[in-house]
Amino acid sequence: MKVLKEIGDLRKEVRSVRRKGLKTGFVPTMGFLHEGHLSLVKQANAECDLSFVSIFVNPLQFNNKSDLENYPVDIPRDLKLLEECKTDFVFIPHYSEVYSAGSQTRIDTGDLGKDYEGAFRPGHFAGVVTVVSILFNLVQPDIAVFGEKDFQQLRIIEQMVDDLKFDIQIRRGKTVREADGLAKSSRNVRLSSSQREQALLISQGLQEALSLFRSGEKDAAKLQSVVTEKLARGKEVNMEYVSLVEEESLSPIAEATENTRILVAASVGPVRLLDNIRLEA
Ligand code: AMP
């Protein structure tokens, strides 16, 4: 596994890999890796000859200063995990490698980025797609793998690749959960044990809505209230949104179908958590 910090070194490797005609997969991350990230790397490795992972905590996508300052970092541990799952190249750039001095260009994510996370975190998606497109230009992978855990982000990146004609296939990775159902997240380490228990209400609420859907309930308002009522039981849980949306457009729906996702954001104590589920039979 090679660790690269500078664009010049990354470009040399990318050129050499491309000359050899090797198929490459890429997983962008913000580090403090867990099995969710590693499952994406394994997915890239299974399909490709070589894998690239980036670790970069992108200030541009944080609208909240304390969230950025408290974002967990442990590069030695990340490198060990990446080595174990046979990553070929890890790119860990400094801020000044990614953003040129006086950097101006930002990408607008259109309607897909307006609601949900877009409404609660102004500027977040412009930051995400700007850094992802910079990284795509540097790594030039054949495929890039993103987690369904951040479903709105995934849809926005799929749309961006289509709109801006990146020659990259986006692959979806399933959400990896703890044994009790909590979606894995780098931010989970910041939960106290009581907050950790309350955080479980999110995945439990989603599972209950799925069961109700499977037993025939299609009314979006009813399915939504199963989740909101569940979240209301947590003393330190503050719901931001629980939205039933059509999977492609992310538009709100009144009647649930097999193409419906429930998107949830809630803070539990100081930690903001996201989860979602597909309503499928
Ligand atoms: P992050 O480091 O949070 O920016 O996430 C990097 C990538 O890992 C994104 O594509 C996320 O959607 C994905 N990811 C984060 N958590 C999970 C999870 N629990 N299961 C699967 N993928 C995840």
Give the tags.
single chain; 281 residues; alpha/beta; 6-stranded parallel beta sheet; 3-stranded antiparallel beta sheet; 10 helices; globular; binds adenosine monophosphate
Strand content: 15-25%
**Strand order across the largest sheet:** 1-4-3-2-5-6
Q: Profile the largest sheet.
A: 6 strands, parallel
Oligomer: single chain
The distinct ligands, each listed once, are: adenosine monophosphate
Number of strands: 9
Tell the overall outline: globular
Structural class label: alpha/beta
The share of residues in helices is: 40-55%
Q: How many helices?
A: 10
How much is the average pLDDT? 98
Q: What is the rounded Rg?
A: 19 Å
CA-CA gap between termini? 42 Å
Order of helices and strands: EHEHEHHEHHHEHEHHEEE
Description:
The structure is a single chain. With 281 residues, the chain is α/β, with parallel strands linked by helices. The protein is built from ten helices and nine strands. It has a six-stranded parallel sheet, with helices on both faces. Strands 7-8-9 form a three-stranded antiparallel sheet, covered by helices on one side. β2, α2 and β3 form a beta-alpha-beta unit. α7 packs across α8 and α9 packs antiparallel against α10. The longest helix has 22 residues. The protein starts with a strand and ends with a strand. The mean pLDDT is 98. It binds adenosine monophosphate. The site of adenosine monophosphate has 17 residues, from α2 and β5.
